[in-house]
């Protein structure tokens, strides 16, 4: 059977194309919403790829962009627009399914190119695996290309051009052998890819530390397995329609799309979740370092490349946050070195004593010492105290921190900079410095009196 002039007479299934447009509104909202949000995530991935090119990130982009395009095309509004522009009914169905096949191929590639967790450095799951893994990747891509070509041939051979069915294509044309083969091949390839990527994601997640990345990978697996419900519903409805049974169409038009939408949401947020968490963390660190940066900037304005941004500019900053945060950290480090000659020896014992009393861990103890040293050194600098010679300068902890841990250390210092504990420590340093100065004055006076008595006569001798 190469074509059907009125397929609705053979299937006995009412066509949604003849129903009020309102019935298609929920599908337009859901499909277009998922498509747009997914494209935003895909744009973020391609932006990350441009900053740090890698095969893995590029494949991730395609694995998001392909189904995003499919969801947009699947919305009845765009579906009918494609049919009108092309002049061929239901052509959008082929384009939608090819978009899903693009995801399936990308998912299979990711499942083969991701390296085992123990072999990755810094949990970079988007990096490609070794060269030897590309042979099975190329083999699978070749198989997908051949099967997608077969799908396209079957679709056109089926002649499914009328009626136009943006929501009921599968059950409407399932009695056509060529279309039935097209649909079954599509569902099988899709299910294979979902199970493959879900299995690999679970294995990767098991080897990652707890955090946004692990949660995102697990969500990818959950979304993949959830989307398998779409295939189960579709195949059941297609089989029933092909056999001439009615009453199961809701599996294809309601329950199946619900599984697909939920799976797509989970997969998209799984891909985008770690990136969003990294963005939020960078923005939080950038803003958290502002008080510490302001402190060193007031001490020496030559440390910064530009004047401090306004409060609104700081709140609305969303671009180049990694570069801005890294630069802010470097300028803080320069400021710490600049203020080092005004750090008094009392800083370390006073801050250490308070940290021990409060039970602070090693990282917070070091941060308290640095915060105390910076605040007190700025006070002494502005009070006109002379700088200490290099051999008498007090080294503060954290200057030899590894780059990976340096930002976290500076953020801790910034959080403690104006904390009550730091204020107490600064007051203690101030008091210790005053006592030291008083002792120095007493010693100096005593030395001066003793010298005068040795050079002149004693009081008793003068009286005699």
Please explain how this structure is put together.
Helix content is 73%, strand content 0%. The chain has 18 helices and no strands. The protein has helices spanning 7-11, 25-51, 55-74, 76-86, 91-113, 134-158, 169-173, 177-206, 212-242, 249-288, 290-299, 311-316, 321-339, 347-358, 362-382, 403-416, 420-455, 459-463. The chain starts with 6 loop residues before the first helix and ends with a helix. The relative contact order is 0.07.
Q: Could you name the key traits of this structure?
A:
464 residues; mainly alpha; 18 helices; 0% strand; elongated; disordered N terminus; disordered C terminus
Topology:
Elements: H1 7-11, H2 25-51, H3 55-74, H4 76-86, H5 91-113, H6 134-158, H7 169-173, H8 177-206, H9 212-242, H10 249-288, H11 290-299, H12 311-316, H13 321-339, H14 347-358, H15 362-382, H16 403-416, H17 420-455, H18 459-463
Helix pairs in contact: 2-3, 2-10, 3-5, 5-6, 5-8, 6-8, 8-9, 9-10, 10-13, 11-13, 14-15, 14-17, 15-16, 15-17
């Amino acid at each position: 059977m190469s074509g059907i002039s009125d397929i609705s007479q053979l299937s006995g299934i009412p066509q949604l194309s003849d129903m009020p447009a309102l019935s298609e509104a929920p599908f337009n909202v859901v499909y277009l919403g998922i498509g747009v949000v997914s494209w935003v995530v895909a744009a973020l991935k391609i932006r990350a790829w441009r900053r740090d090119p890698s095969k893995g990130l590029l494949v991730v982009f395609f694995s998001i962009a392909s189904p995003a395009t499919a969801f947009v095309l699947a919305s009845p509004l765009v579906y009918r627009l494609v049919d009108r522009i092309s002049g061929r009914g239901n052509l959008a169905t082929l384009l939608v399914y090819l978009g899903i096949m693009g995801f399936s191929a990308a998912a299979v590639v990711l499942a083969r190119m991701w390296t085992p967790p123990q072999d990755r450095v810094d949990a970079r799951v988007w990096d490609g695996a070794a060269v030897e893994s590309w042979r099975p990747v190329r083999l699978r891509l070749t198989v997908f290309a051949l099967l997608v070509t077969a799908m396209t041939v079957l679709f056109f051979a089926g002649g499914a051009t009328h009626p136009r069915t943006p929501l009921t294509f599968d059950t409407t044309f399932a009695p056509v052998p060529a279309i039935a083969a097209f649909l079954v091949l599509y569902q099988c390839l899709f299910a294979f890819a979902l199970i493959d990527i879900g299995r690999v994601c679970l294995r990767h997640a098991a080897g990652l530390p707890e955090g946004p990345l692990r949660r995102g990978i697990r969500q990818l697996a959950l979304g993949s397995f959830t989307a398998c419900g779409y295939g189960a519903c579709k195949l059941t409805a297609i089989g029933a329609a092909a056999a001439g049974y009615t009453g199961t169409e809701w599996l294809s038009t309601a329950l199946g799309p619900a599984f697909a939408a939920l799976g797509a949401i989970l997969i998209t947020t799984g891909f985008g979740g770690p990136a969003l968490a990294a963005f939020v963390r960078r923005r939080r660190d950038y803003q958290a370092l502002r008080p510490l940066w302001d402190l060193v900037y007031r001490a020496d304005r030559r440390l910064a490349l530009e004047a401090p941004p306004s409060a609104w500019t700081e709140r609305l900053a969303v671009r180049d946050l990694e570069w801005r945060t890294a630069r802010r950290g470097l300028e803080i480090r320069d400021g710490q070195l600049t203020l080092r000659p005004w750090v008094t020896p009392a800083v370390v014992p006073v801050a250490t004593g308070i940290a021990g009393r409060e039970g602070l861990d090693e990282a917070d103890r070091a941060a308290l010492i640095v915060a105390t040293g910076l605040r007190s050194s700025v006070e002494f600098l502005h009070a006109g105290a002379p700088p200490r010679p290099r051999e008498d300068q007090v080294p503060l902890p954290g200057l030899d921190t590894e780059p990976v841990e340096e930002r976290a250390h500076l953020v801790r210092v910034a959080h403690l900079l104006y904390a009550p504990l730091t204020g107490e420590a600064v007051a203690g340093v101030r008091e210790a410095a005053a006592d030291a100065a008083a002792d120095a004055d007493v010693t100096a006076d005593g030395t001066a009196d003793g010298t005068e008595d040795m050079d002149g006569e004693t009081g008793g001798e003068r009286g005699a």
